[in-house]
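Why run this: before we spend reagent on co-expression, it is cheaper to look at a predicted model of the complex and decide which construct boundaries make sense. The entries below are exactly what would go into the expression plan.
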Amino acid sequence: MSKDKIESASPHVLPPLPYADNALAPVISAKTIGFHYGKHHKGYIDNLNKLVAGTEFADLSLEKIITKTAGKADKTAIFNNAAQAWNHTFYWRSLKPKGGGEPPIALKQKIEASFGTLDACKKELAATAMSQFGSGWAWLVLDGGKLKVAKTGNADVPLTKGMKPLLTIDVWEHAYYLDYQNRRADYVNAVLDKLINWDFAVENLG
Ligand SMILES: [Fe+2]
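The model came back. Tokens follow.
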């Protein structure tokens, strides 16, 4: 994927997973990926294509659709499906097989400047992921030149709040329920320790 382009204009297509469906196991099973990517992510894209067909949004990129529909009550369905299409593509790239571990040095220094230690950054990400009530997303973002942790509810995105997303963790139950049932903390900590893709964060720092 190019640096900041998640996806082109419609018809929107489901981008290929950046790894095999069993490549994140045992942290995230192929069964979870099958539903999460194959049903949920695909569903958002299929719905979006139906919703924008023949409208002023038909030829716009996902990012444009998101920014033009954010906060507009009569465009909620389009926003939700566009934002979820974007969020999921960003989420798959926020993970990688044999991820976790130490970030590249330049990112590690930024993390230490903002959070003190890598461990403190991971703890804040995990605590934020846990404190999101119901469905949503936990993010590592760049906000005014500083790294921060943020959360968004349902389909909401940091893009519309002036923050630049670097990494995300999906905390909708569909992301972990088959593997962890209600144990969201176990899922989040396993993702941070074993799958998080620090290289993707560096790419997004740009
Ligand atoms: Fe999801």
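Residues 36, 40, 88, 170, 172, 174-175 surround fe (ii) ion (CB under 6 Å). The first strand starts at residue 136 and ends at 143. Bring this page to Monday's planning discussion.
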